[in-house]
Amino acid sequence: MRSAFxxxxxxxxxxxxxxxxxxRAQSSCIDYTSYLRWExxxxxxxIARNVVIYLGRxxxxxxxxxxxxxxxxxxxxPYIMGSVETTEANDLTIASNHAYVADGAAGFTVIDITxxxxxxxxxxxxxxxxxxxxxxxxNHAYVADGAAGxxIIDISNPASPTIVGSVAxxxxxxxxxVTGGRAYVGDWTGGLVVIDVSNPAAPGIIGSIPTPGGxxxxxxxxxxxxxxxxxxxxxxIDISNPSSLRIxxxxxxxGHSSVVCLSxxxxxxxxxxxxxxxIDIxxxxxxxxxxxxxxxGPVLGVAVDSGHAYLGTGVEGFQVVNVADSGTPGxxxxxxxxxxxxxxxxxxxHAYVADGDNGLVVLDxxxPASPTIVGSVxxxxxxxxxxxxxNHAYVAEGNNGxxVVDISNPAVPVVVGSVLLPGSVSGxxxxxxxAYVADGxxxxxxxxxxxxxxxTIIGSAEIRDYAAGVTVGxxxAYVAxxxxxxxVVDISNPTSPSVVGVVDxxxxxxxxxxSGTYAFVADGKSGLEIIDVSNPAAPRIVSxxxxxxxxxxxxxxxxxxxxxxxxxxxxxxxxxxxxxxLIGTGNTPDIANSVAVVGSVLLVADSAPGLVxxxxxxxxxxxxxxxxxxxxxxxxxxxxxxxxxGATSVRYxxxxxxxxxxxxxxxxxxxxxxxxxxxxxxxVHLVPWDGMDAAGHPAPxxxxxxxLTAGKSVRTGRVVRIR
Length: 723
What we know:
By secondary structure, the chain is mainly β. It has three domains: 219 residues, Methylamine Dehydrogenase, Chain H, CATH 2.130.10.10; 290 residues, Methylamine Dehydrogenase, Chain H, CATH 2.130.10; 89 residues, Immunoglobulin-like, CATH 2.60.40. It is 2% helix and 48% strand. The longest helix is centred in the N-terminal third of the chain and has 7 residues.
């Protein structure tokens, strides 16, 4: 089953500007670990907005559910370890074991986080407006208070915060930063406002400048302010003379820019529906987008620590993105199709697309940089999915059944037969003379297609809930059965198929692919489920991979599994099905409904834009078992197992020989042990750690930083020891 047509979240033209089409010569495989990539996330109860990292933990304001404390010891597996409710948490900052929260209509709230697992409200003071942003300097907190401008609060006694000064602004104060006795306020229609706060009891505006959008987030470095300016992107403002502020540079972004976080020579911008934007600010007058990544929810807040961006993504909660590299995987090409591109099948040098109201569309994909529509045929209903075998394509049409199309001449496809089925057809698999049809509420239907002009139902099996997708392996059909999970059907007698095994999956099984004794299930919000089907009567889940979007479809090449989801394509290493891991993600303009591998490219049915072509993951990288910490010629893997009890191992890859130092540090920065120190040859290295420190004593249960130095390159990761 494929997703329904949905609006485009990023304009195709903007995406192409950031990721220009590639020529045939450039259409080779890539290493997805060398780009921005999603690593993990955790749901929060409401709308996750901004994030602060403090003493190795993430503190997230979650709107009406207050403050969430997230353990990020393993960035791929964050979890909520503490929380406290407030009224309307919009922003926060942290100092001296206290979180200071801009709490909307409730004003300013102070939370004691001495025990992160049990944060408690220590104090509160109402503000005249609605508190949206907060900063702390010394004994004072500065609150962007919406229509009430700036409020200055004495926090010398956190239990009894007191407003000591205020100043009205002309717009709506959303965010601010304070440095050098000045507050820089993102004042929406009022632009950037600079306020002298050297005397907290008598603040005064000393400068302002309108911005072309709506000034929201503000970050300052030296004499430059970086303003998230809603639909006008990032504005760069010279603040060396507050009475004469000047916009010196800007860069457009596809969404609505708000929070800005500076990290070295990069600005990371929360761009709402435009995802996370990473911008080069080495030359403030000429900022340039280095890369971006879209997530399942709008990016509303961002914090950076140790090569990771920690994001508040609205109703999708808290998410982690590896930002050690800033690039975005390029799109090879986009070919518009007339309708909603929902399903895809490749046969030779042609791709057959189920194109919604426009029926079946045929594209010549011999040159992936320039696919060409060569034919099409209308069908009675709405084309949802398609499969092909030999000279025929089989189009799933929901309530209009299954259409059989002669594709012996791809330029002139012809409907030659059809069959109505009792349910709603969402997909089919064709083997020999039989089509095994996922028929929604009609279960699994077996259709004899030996005579394409007269396809005939010869058998069926009832599937609990809804048959959404199907594949065939040997004498079994494997049915993605929506909320039921995976159903295994014995089809040794096609006229009398019978369900022999079922395994529940956490969410909504939409498609299934089988290789050897494993079934791979696209399970909606749960991501990828991997199921051992060596005993068809007792299938069992052996592993799971969370992905950033909603999983719809699958394609397998070697031991790289490609998952089509609501934001693009996820690349998963399944070399060891019991221990798979996410390699990287390639965003597409809309919803990736289906995916196929053709040589070194991926063909993606991507709803509104049509057929999108991406590049595959290079086999040479994943052949080593994949190293998800890959950067350039030096790649550091996360330890496995992680977390661990007794012992673990660190893998790293060198493309060239180098002098290497591999060390472990505790979270205070103290050296715990050096595992390797000396010359290492090119290739993959596996270094065990027995859990002992340099003195031969057991290292305590804690989080440790793994630091790999190879020549001039430094890579870091984390490992957690538990008892």
